[in-house]
Structure formats: structure tokens, C-alpha cells
Specification:
By secondary structure, the protein is mostly beta strands. It folds into two domains: 91 residues, Ribosomal Protein L25, Chain P, CATH 2.40.240; 79 residues, Beta Complex (RNA Polymerase Alpha Subunit, Chain A, domain 2). It is built from three helices and 13 strands. The protein is elongated.
Length: 218
């Protein structure tokens, strides 16, 4: 079983935007715990402790709510409009023996053989939805792509997942490709057609009319 981090939680009795702002100013994070047919429970967490676990890729935590332990999953993290400051966290209660569906970051490892032939590796899928035991949720799913040849297309159904982990994302979804980048060629200007009339060149100076030329000769 994986090591499950513990977060201290305090019951939260005051709700509302102003109360939440005061909590964040004090280094706290408003959160709510729900699920398993129990009433939603507003709590307060340590802001930096939650941020640290999220950066480490944690999904499963144990909440210590006044001495009462409750396994929970991070469900929804709400950020400000810049995506920089964590504003609120939703957690869902879980049983350590149940299977859950979660989204896990997908990381490609290695340099494909096709890159040596002029190809470029392009990752199309950044997260994979999987189902597994709550205690077996990986922080990240890594796939070695070093054997991919030129013009290869890697699909979800071809990923090497650990035992007990099932992909929920459609198996035909493209994960990555190795292809030669398209080159946009410039179309040369069309040459004049053979026999086409040359443009008339008018000499600089006075232009004589037929009548004027005869008059000067006289």
C-alpha cells in the first residue's frame, strides 16, 4: 500500500466569501468533504500543506478532522482567474478497498527512433482517465517511446499500464505521433506565356501626333 499523507483539518462553521478571504489571508484553505451518502462537511486546511501535496501529484490523503481519520481524494481544486492562487478544495470520501476513476498526467520518456530520421515527436494527450484501487493511483503514467519509428501513431490501447490499472479513455485516442513536419513551399510567380505581347514603352519627352509631325516639316 502506498504511503498516504495526512492533512490536519478543522471544522468550518462560518461560510461566505469574506470568511473565506480571511482564512486565506491567515494561510488557511476553505474546503468541503462529501460523498459516501454522508452530509457535506465544511473544513479548513493548511494552504501550504495542500499546495505541497498537489505539486507532488498526490490524489489520496487522510484527513485528520479533530482526531477522526477519513481517507479522501482531491476532487476539484478551484483557482483564481490567473490560475495561480488556490481558492477552494473539494474532497470526496473513499474506502481504501474501492476502485475509483481518476485523471492522471501522462509523461513520455525517451527519444523515438523516428526522430533520427527527421521526424518530430508530438504529444497529443496530456492526461489519461483510469480506473484502479484508490490505494494504487499513480502520480503519473510514464510511457517509453524510444522504439517508435517514423510515421508512428501511438494510441491509448497501446500504452503499458501497471497491473490493476484500466484505461477509461477511449482506446483509439491518439497519444502521440512521430512525423516529418510539413514544409510550406513558396509557389513561384508564373512566367509570361510564350508569344505574349511585350508592354508598350513610351519614351520620355514630347509625344507627336500625326498632324503635328507634318506641320513641323513644312
Amino acid at each position: 500500500m502506498q504511503n498516504i499523507p495526512t492533512l490536519k483539518a478543522e471544522p468550518r462553521k462560518v461560510a461566505g466569501g469574506r470568511a473565506a478571504a480571511r482564512l486565506r489571508k491567515a494561510g488557511k484553505l476553505p474546503a468541503i468533504v462529501y460523498g459516501h451518502k454522508q452530509e457535506p462537511e465544511p473544513v479548513t486546511l493548511d494552504y501550504h500543506a495542500v499546495e505541497l501535496e498537489l505539486k507532488g501529484g498526490a490524489h489520496l490523503v487522510t484527513l485528520d478532522i479533530g482526531g477522526r481519520s477519513q481517507p479522501c481524494l482531491f476532487k476539484d481544486a478551484q483557482y483564481d482567474h490567473l490560475g495561480a492562487t488556490l481558492l477552494h478544495m473539494d474532497l470526496t470520501r473513499v474506502d481504501l478497498n474501492e476502485r475509483v476513476k481518476v485523471r492522471v498526467p501522462l509523461e513520455l520518456r525517451g527519444t523515438p527512433k523516428g526522430v533520427g530520421e527527421g521526424g518530430v515527436l508530438r504529444q497529443e494527450l496530456m492526461e489519461l482517465e483510469v480506473e484502479c484501487l484508490v490505494t494504487s493511483i499513480p502520480d503519473v503514467i510514464r510511457e517509453n517511446v524510444s522504439e517508435l519509428p517514423l510515421n508512428a501513431v501511438l494510441h491509448v490501447k497501446e500504452l503499458h499500464l501497471d497491473s490493476g490499472i484500466t484505461a477509461i479513455t477511449d482506446g483509439d485516442t491518439v497519444v502521440a505521433t512521430v512525423r516529418v513536419p510539413a514544409v510550406h513551399e513558396e509557389i513561384p510567380a508564373a512566367a509570361p506565356a510564350e508569344g505574349a505581347a511585350e508592354p508598350e514603352v513610351i519614351a520620355k519627352g514630347k509625344v507627336e501626333t500625326e498632324g503635328e509631325g507634318e506641320a513641323e516639316k513644312k
